[in-house]
Each structure stands twice: as C-alpha cells, then as structure tokens.
Amino acid sequence: MLTNLESQLKQQNAADKLDLVLAEIPRVREDLGFIPLVTPTSQIVGTQAVLNVLTGERYTTPWRCSR
C-alpha cells in the first residue's frame, strides 16, 4: 500500500504530501465503516485519501465504489 501511495503522489509531483495522505487514511477508513485494509480495499482507501489530499477537499472526487 505504501509503495502505491508513494507512486501515486510522485506521478502528481506531490511526494511531499505523503504524511498528509497517511493522516487521511484513518479518516477515510472510518467513513467507510472501518473496512479491513486488504486488497482491494486498501487501494480504494489509499487512493481516496490521495484524492482528498490533492484536491484539498474530502470526497470531491469519490471512487465509484465509495459512494
């Protein structure tokens, strides 16, 4: 999961935001009912956390399955 997050952030030239994304993950997980962080849900939670941090707003760009 961590490698995937780092890759997503590097692709967006936002590698410096990793700490913010890591802090956002528990919030997203809580919003989704504390789902276990196993594949594929770990990628869904991680990607949503990245989107929340990069847009500066929570869930303005939700994954289809997190609606």
TrEMBL record:
InterPro entries documented for this protein: Carboxylase_cons_dom
Top-level division of the source organism's lineage: Bacteria
SUPFAM superfamilies reported in the protein's UniProt record: post-HMGL domain-like
Pfam families reported for this sequence: PYC_OADA (PF02436)
Carboxylase conserved domain segment(s): 1-55
Protein name as annotated: Oxaloacetate decarboxylase alpha chain
